[in-house]
Design goal:
This protein is α+β, with helices and mostly antiparallel strands. The protein contains 14 helices and 46 strands. The protein is globular and about 110 Å long. The protein starts with 19 loop residues before the first helix and ends with a strand.
Length: 929
């Protein structure tokens, strides 16, 4: 029997005992009109009426009376009737009851049963008995929800407990008990199912009333001592004060301390199995601090340990804060469980060994909905207007001041033209004056010219930064020059470039302010102390994104569409005028994909969105070496296999990310510990293992991730290792396109990875014989500006290789601004002929690497950014309708992809399908009527 454990909202594993007051808080036992919230929803729960209302599942059953002490060879002491389920050929066979009409969506139900085992098939002294729900949906696979289990010793009764809750109402809900091996008889003395934590909308039908926003943590302020808490690899103790009274609770009378910690993961924990529902977002809030071992500050993290019914383990980081030894700080974060775990433990960890973690309180509640964003106010904004005072220096240094102990003077001899990236944004504009600020006597890298622009910048608008810069003599090597902004105590990167000669260089960048600062200052900085800095034509201006979108739409139509001629035959010419044609595009073939993780696909809502809106996918972590071989020789491909199976099922193409990762912090400790010969062997084994197993499965591979930002393998194994990785990968799977992949290529904010350096990097690999087949631009970008992105694409496009945005995400707390940012990137990509695909780095809240980057909120609501994404997807589908012309043709221009055509003649209706491929000439499609 195939099982799909995908539908439940919560799961259970040994619920802890509660004091009466706590039990009432957790279970929602407050009075209601019916007074029946403890009523058992099962009929004939104690078998006093035989097996009435119960049904053996493909096996046999009968009831032994309380008066009988031995019947059919089964002897069990009992003062009640009990059922015997026998002739079991499969472990899933047991006793069931239909409870469809008794269950309400959103309510939480507890199950309690007394069970036993017997029979000749019992090869060991004990066997597992499980409680399960069978969920039947019309038109889709039957699903099974594991509720709870217990291990039963022959000859004794054991209590089986669990909880469940459903987020959707199936057509049929069958509760049953199952589990022991074939041939083992299942004994059941009594079963109860009660409503314990109801939905807000629950009426007195089943006697449940909502308690609202309850904390799922038991004993959250340690008023009941350390009950329900335990140490994770360490000791926990209770205190009312410490350090001679210097440490006291911030709230309440007590706090807990995790002490004698020998590992960073040691801490305080509580099992919350059965109290968290799947697909619901929860927020944790805790008061924490640290103590001891001469550590004054350290990260304290909240982590979930999750065990799935098939015994997989997951560690989910949900919050972290920099804690100190001087005061209590608030730890906050959110989490959501996609699947149906058999066990969930929440614990605090993080500080180095020997440092105590102190906890004053810990609360976990259903997270409140995020208030809707308000569209930014762009009224009365003059786009393209420079907000820098005296930018052309016609009034000497008026408006400027030296930041730090440096000297500003105005000189002549700088470029008269606006830098190219700003030129594309500004359109018609005046020439620059040719005057520049010469900064001398610099004693710090941050010394330079500055202006205060607090009142000139509007919140949520995107500003482009542009300037010419140059450095004087005396530098020992290349120097970074940076346009920076100081918003109170926050440093903002407005763009930077590397300068190594006496030429003028362009700086292009951008920024956005989303919280009003008391002071906003812009300054130019960067070269080493003692090196003169020269700045000309600094411009900061609001970007007119809508005007850019109109231009990009025209460009997209030029390069992503093709003319089509539908040529009809078999139709009398007199019928042309009365024949209508309806053309509808059903699929755009341009690759738009997303990153997915193994835990995501346990959420059917996530899978539905994925399948409906994306045609490519990449795995977030599951193919990376540290995931597939965390310990040497212990290979784990199951997670990747599961993701690949899903993609194959829905015909979603996949990218392989990544074979290696050059950044040292991402390399497993066991790899770092190898000598060079063994490391070379491990590298070869990794290539052979991965690419042989998945030969032909992945269309792309990122061979060695982020080589511009890391050099672990090159430092250890020499320069040739990078090219050899490409060569070997190509030998093992010649069907895959091999990519380089790096970040900050497109935004002007990182001198390590500017387009010129990326281009040279690729050329160097090719010179060594590396079969580089594609250029990956990750696209983790803030406040993107179209011309800056386009300029980077132009520079990379000269290599003639396909360019993909491989990890695109944008971040803004305002969903409308986030939508604008995403639209910038998607439109720039579609409008550029060198770009051949886009991969989003996720779309679902709480499952993305950056906050405020999601398109779908944690519980499945599509936000404003998501709506913008879906609107663009619709825009990139071509539709047309009209009549057949006098030549027996119908002409239109459409995006590449799959089309349906409906033709209605005076006598009949015909439907056809065709695929519009890339091409320069019109595509002729013959249709015989």
């Amino acid at each position: 029997m195939k099982r799909f454990f995908t539908c439940c909202v919560s799961n259970f594993h040994s619920k802890p005992k509660l004091k009466k007051s706590q039990s009432q808080i957790m279970a929602g036992n407050i009075s209601n009109p019916s007074g029946s919230n403890a009523d058992n929803i099962l009929l004939n729960h104690d078998f006093s009426d035989g097996l009435n209302s119960w049904h053996p599942n493909s096996c046999k059953g009968y009831v032994i009376s309380a008066k009988a002490c031995d019947q059919a060879g089964i002897s069990m002491e009992s003062d009640r009737n009990y059922a015997v389920i026998t002739d079991r050929k499969e472990c899933w066979q047991g006793l069931e009851q239909n409870i469809t009409d008794k269950i309400l969506v959103g309510s939480t139900y507890t199950i309690s049963a007394f069970v036993g085992v017997s029979g000749p098939g019992l090869s060991q002294e004990s066997a597992d008995v499980k409680a399960t729900l069978k969920l039947e949906y019309q038109g889709s696979d039957t699903q099974y929800l594991f509720i709870g289990s217990t291990s039963v010793i022959k000859g004794s009764w054991e209590k089986l407990e669990g909880t469940f809750s459903l987020s959707t109402k199936p057509d049929r809900i069958i509760f049953y008990l199952e589990g022991p091996a074939p041939g083992v008889d299942l004994l059941i003395r009594s079963v109860e199912i009660n409503c314990s934590s109801p939905n807000n909308n629950t009426l007195s039908t089943v006697g449940c009333v909502s308690t609202g926003d309850e904390n799922i943590i038991i004993n959250p302020q340690f008023e009941d001592g350390l009950n329900n808490w335990s140490g994770r690899g360490c000791k926990i103790v209770l205190n009312d004060s410490m350090a001679d009274g210097r440490i006291v609770p911030k709230s309440g009378k007590l706090f807990a301390r995790a002490t004698e910690r020998t590992q960073a993961w040691n801490g305080i924990q509580q099992e919350i199995t059965g109290r968290v529902q799947r697909k619901l977002a929860y927020e944790i809030t805790a008061l924490v601090r640290i103590y001891g071992n001469n550590v004054t500050s350290a990260d304290v993290r909240a982590t979930l340990w999750v065990q799935t019914p098939d015994y997989r383990e997951q560690y989910i980081g949900i919050a972290n804060v920099q804690a100190t030894d001087t005061d209590w700080v608030t730890l906050q974060g959110k989490f959501l469980l996609n699947g149906s775990p058999s066990k969930v433990v929440l614990y605090l960890e993080g500080p180095p060994s020997g440092t105590d973690i102190l906890v004053n309180s810990l609360v976990v509640k259903h997270a409140a909905k995020t208030p809707p964003s308000i569209p930014p106010n762009a009224k009365n904004v003059i786009f393209g207007l420079n907000i820098i005072e005296n930018s052309n220096l016609s009034d000497d240094t008026k408006g400027w001041f030296p930041l730090g102990s440096c000297t500003l003077n105005v000189k002549t001899g700088s470029p008269h033209i606006v830098p190219p990236m700003a030129r594309d944004s500004l359109g018609p504009h005046e020439l620059l004056s040719g005057r520049y600020i010469h900064v001398t006597n610099r004693t710090q890298t941050w010394n330079g010219p500055a202006q205060v622009i607090t009142d000139k910048v509007k919140l949520f608008l995107t500003y482009q930064v542009s300037a010419w810069v140059r450095i004087g003599s005396g530098s020992s090597g290349p120097q970074n020059v940076n346009v920076a902004l100081g918003a109170d105590d926050q440093w903002i990167n407005g763009g930077q470039t590397e300068v190594s000669d006496k030429q003028w260089h362009e700086i292009g960048g951008s920024f956005r302010i989303e919280k009003q600062p008391s002071k906003l200052m812009v300054y130019i900085q960067g070269p080493a102390s003692g090196v003169d800095l020269m700045v000309a034509g600094l411009q900061i201006f609001a970007v007119d994104r809508r005007a850019r979108f109109r231009y990009l739409k025209m460009q997209t139509d030029k390069i992503r569409k093709r003319d089509v001629v539908l040529k009809f035959s078999g139709l009398d010419a007199s019928s042309y005028v009365n024949t209508t044609v309806q053309v509808r595009q059903t699929r755009n073939d341009f690759p738009i994909g997303t990153c997915i993780s193994r835990s995501n696909i346990d959420n059917e809502d996530f899978v539905n969105f994925l399948v409906k809106h994306f045609n490519w996918a990449v795995f977030a972590n599951e193919l990376k070496w540290y995931w597939t071989e965390a310990q040497q020789g212990n290979l784990n491909y199951k997670d990747a296999d599961d993701l690949l199976s899903l993609c194959e099922k829905y015909k979603i193409e996949t990218r392989g990310h990544c074979i290696f990762w050059e950044v040292e912090q991402t390399v497993q400790p066991w790899i770092k510990s190898l000598n060079n010969n063994d490391l070379m062997t491990a590298v070869q084994n990794r290539l052979t293992s991965l690419l042989t197993r998945y030969k032909g499965k992945f269309s792309h591979y990122d061979v060695n991730n982020e080589m511009l930002h890391g050099s672990f393998y090159q430092d250890r194994l020499g320069k040739d290792i990078r090219a050899n990785m490409f060569k070997t990968a190509n030998q093992l799977d010649s069907s895959a396109t091999l990519f380089v992949n790096d970040y900050h290529i497109e935004d002007g904010c990182d001198t390590k990875s500017c387009p010129n350096k990326y281009t040279q990097h690729i050329l160097d690999l090719q010179d060594q014989g590396a079969p580089v087949g594609g250029i990956g631009i990750q696209g983790h970008i803030d406040n993107p500006v179209g011309p800056i992105v386009c300029s980077s694409l132009d520079k990379l496009g000269i290599l003639g290789l396909p360019i993909w945005f491989t990890e695109l995400d944008v971040s803004s707390a305002n969903e409308y601004v986030r939508g604008d940012d995403l639209e910038v990137m998607l439109r720039e990509a579609l409008a550029h002929p060198a770009v051949e695909g886009i991969m989003l780095w996720g779309f679902w809240e709480l499952f993305m690497s950056r906050d405020n980057a999601h398109l779908v909120n944690a519980e499945g609501d599509i936000n404003e950014a998501g709506k913008r994404f879906l609107a663009l997807k619709q825009e990139w589908l071509s539709h047309s309708h009209g009549h057949v012309d006098e030549l027996g043709q119908f002409n239109f221009r459409g995006f590449y992809g799959t089309y349906n055509v409906d033709i209605v003649t005076p006598s009949k209706k015909i439907s056809k399908t065709f695929v519009l491929d890339k091409g320069d000439n019109p595509m002729m499609v013959s249709i015989d009527l």
